Amino acid sequence: MNVQxxxxxxxxxxxxxxxxxxxxxxxxxxxxACVTKHNIDSQGILGDGYIVESSTVAQVIQDAVKPxxxxxxxxxxxxxxxxxxxxxxVMWFEPSRKAPMWRRESKLVQYxxxxxxxLFIMPKHGDSLYVFSLASDMRPNLSDTVYIAPLxxxxxxxxxxxxxxxxxxxxxxxxxxEAAATIxxxxxxxxxxxxxxxxxxxxxxxxxxxxxxxxxxIPASIKPLCSLSEIVKAVSNxxxxxxxxxxxxxxxxxxxx
Length: 257
Prior knowledge:
Mean pLDDT: 81
Strand order of the largest sheet: 4-5-8-9-10-12
Largest sheet: 6 strands, antiparallel
Strand content: 25-35%
Structural class: alpha+beta
Order of helices and strands: EEEHHEEEEEEEHEHHEHH
Distance between the termini: 68 Å
Number of strands: 12
Low-confidence stretches: 67-74
Shape: elongated
């Protein structure tokens, strides 16, 4: 198969690109679909292909795009709620909001909640989302305290049990709204732990029943976890997930004593 080597655009304004690879999509009524990646030689000839996992196709394309090709198309505006965006994680916060909180029993139950300000950490590799609470809607400083999130479906390691709520394939600063929606729009089931509450309720849902349409006083109601600087240090040392889990394990052991 030959690939046209001469681009159909004005090369006086743009340098002619070099074809590097092609993705070929196959679809079968009996065998489903698959994608193969083929390198292209200097003569424009398509080489032998190998199968690419469908879940990584978008990442393959993203990795192939050079920074200078995307610079003119990328919005340079930095969102005010973005805290960390490095090669391993995206970290951001969301101010408190008045929105329904859903609980799934034999039927859906709605709580008229005023969600506290939340802090999110989304690793760029894998499918996990860490969630914490904050004392105010202001952009947090490194010295500010991070609190445990008083939410259901959170493990003791502070990552959310995603269930059927799927995180975005491309975990970037541009996809944080989609990631946060997996929390705000989730139908929660149960509390894995009641470790977040200062005055432990009989059931975590009793706490939200008592806070129908009322804001949560986080410092008065929820246990502190650590300072924001400790979390930022953990996600900035090159092994973010390992460091985060080590930090949370250490903090949980201290709180248990």
